[in-house]
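Students often ask what a holo structure prediction actually looks like on paper. The answer is less mysterious than it sounds. You provide the chain, you provide the ligand, and the output is a string of discrete structure tokens encoding the 3D arrangement of the protein together with adenosine monophosphate.
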Amino acid sequence: MEVVHGVPEVRRAVESARRGGRKLGLVPTMGYLHAGHRALIEQAVRECDEVAVSIFVNPTQFGPNEDFARYPRDLERDLAVCREAGASWIFAPEPAVMYPQGPGVPGTLVLPPESLTRGLCGAFRPGHFVGVATVVAKLFALWQPDRAYFGLKDFQQTAVLRALTTDLMFPIALVLVPTVREPDGLAMSSRNVFLSPDERTTALALPRALQAGWAASHGPHARPADVLAAARAVLEATPGVALQYLELVDRETLVDTVDLARPAMLAVAAQVGKTRLIDNVATDGPAPLAAPVAAGSEARQA
Ligand code: AMP
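The corresponding structure tokens follow.
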């Protein structure tokens, strides 16, 4: 495994993979890797000849009052996780490599369709998806992967990146990987490290709310309002959960679902203490609390 930091080194790596006719996978991350990230990397290693993992806390996707400065970082540990998972390259650029114009001057930006960004997280994080789309477009242009791996935990992000890949005509297959959870159901997140023990317990209201909503969606004659009410009841019964949104949306369009016969996603975002958490479940997929837990999922407990 090789650690690369600059554009010329990346170009050399990509050229050597291309010359050898090897299929290249890319796993973009912000580091502080946990078992969710590892699931992406391991799937990429299974499906591709070479895998690059990028580790970059992207400043343009954080708002001015968000946690960019205190976002957790541990490159040494991340390198060990990537090596163990079988990655070929780690790309760990300084911000000046990705944004050479300097701090606060992002240069060319990528604007995703408003229909995909005005709701859900987009309503609470103005500009967030412009930052995500911009950095992913740069990573795609630089690495030119055959396949790129993203987690369904960030469901709205996957919708934005699907549109980006199609609209900007990147010849890249997006592979979407199911959410990896802690044994008690909490979705793995680098931000879980911020939770105090009490907050960690409070945070379980999110997967439990999704579980209740998922169960309600399987009841006879279930309506969207029943699903939302079942999930909301769990959240409202848990002190310390400051709800941002709870929505049942169409998986293609992200608009509120009126018909449970179509593929839908129940999505939640809440602040627990100072930590913002998101989670979601597909109403036609497995129950969130029955989801498989990755081996070694204790690696990054709060
Ligand atoms: P991040 O480092 O948080 O930007 O995440 C990097 C990638 O890992 C994104 O595609 C995320 O959706 C994915 N990811 C984060 N947490 C999980 C999880 N618990 N399960 C599966 N994928 C995840």
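The pocket of adenosine monophosphate is lined by residues 29-30, 36-37, 39-40, 150-151, 153-154, 177, 179-180, 187-190 (CB under 6 Å).
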